[in-house]
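Input set for joint prediction.
Command: fold jointly, output tokens.
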Amino acid sequence: MRIKKEMKLADVIQMNYMLIPVIHRFGINLGFGDKTVADICEEREIDLNFFLQLVNAYHDKDYFPKEELQTIPVRQIVDYLKMTHASYLNNTLNEIEQKIELLQSEGSEDKKYITLIRNFFEGYKNELTEHILYEENTVFPYVLAVEDIIKTQNKDPKNLELFKSFSIIKYADGHEDVEEKLMDLKIIMIKYLAPPENITLYHTIIQDLFKLEEDLNYHSRIEDKVLIPKIVLMEKSIQNLFQI
Amino acid sequence: MNRYTIIIADNSCLIRNGLRSILQKLENVDVVQSIDQKEDVCEIVDQLKPDILIINPNMLNEDCTNVKNSFFQSRNISIILLSDHPNDKNLYQADTFIDYQDNQNIIIDKVQHIIHQKIELVPTKQKSNETLSAREKNILKHIALGLTNKEIADQLFISIHTVVTHRKNITQKLGIKSVSGLTVYAILNNLISMDEVK
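tokens >
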């Protein structure tokens, strides 16, 4: 079902609890009573169109309002993606890590295996962090410069230099293998490890990994299907504009 | 698990979209395209080479009563007829027949039946034992120790190409892709000890 502006946000969350972290990234806290999506966006000064497109894209895998999403300024998409990154780095990854540490500290003969899992997760965390930093330090400044060139129709030498130094295709090409380790970790925990004494905690960790994977997939969809195509088009028109 | 591609050809959008939504309940099939114009059928089928074509007879040329003709057969495409005329079932020779009146479970059963036939035709490796061979275990051990393909090839006196093939098979059997994941597996299965890992 399509999420609409006159729906109560509480009903939206009832429909799909995976949206809780998404609305949180927009700065919306739970406890909003019977307010509608439109009310809350107004209150929080969130662009209603962007909010609706985004939650719908999250909620329904087949909903991809390419044209509507194309109208949203790059700046807003980037801001949202940054919020998502921050929530991974500051919350999700640490929470999972803490749970694994807890499992480890509970001391039993499984300790050795838990250490393996912990090291593996550390490796994954570093990889994801590196990927996020690359996006924030290289890709995002680039796409913002591209938008700026289009907006001002101006050959600001700094922007132009940035434009020549990079191409969005470079980024699109390497954007697939970040989730490999996460999938491996799940498979190892499901198929090849006997669970430790604290089974409940172990299960929670696996469920957390599934949720993280799902959330990352949504996140990459915004990058791959909205941001990248948008920038590809902009790159072309800049090339035409300045005959580069 | 192998995935199977399906093309739906019917001139009613209600039927096309309805069928597509029912087929989503099957986890190993993808509806890659729907066709609404008779003229497009041959071209699109030829281009996309689906595993299964679900087609309404009115999308076929008039002289085409034997839909298992050379065009489809040479492409190894299973044909499912889709129609609201039960008689069509006997007029054409297809692999199976879906009636507009069929309920969801029947439709799914029929498509699944076709997929099972296809699976049996192609004996896949996936059916074989998932455990690693001694050779693969040995290669896995070297991967876990952090050796490159070239180094493994040199040490075991085999070609790099052979190493790559073994790696592919190992990944397919275990479901683990990354080197660090394979290393964890190797330790868990006592192929190497934890101290050996750098």
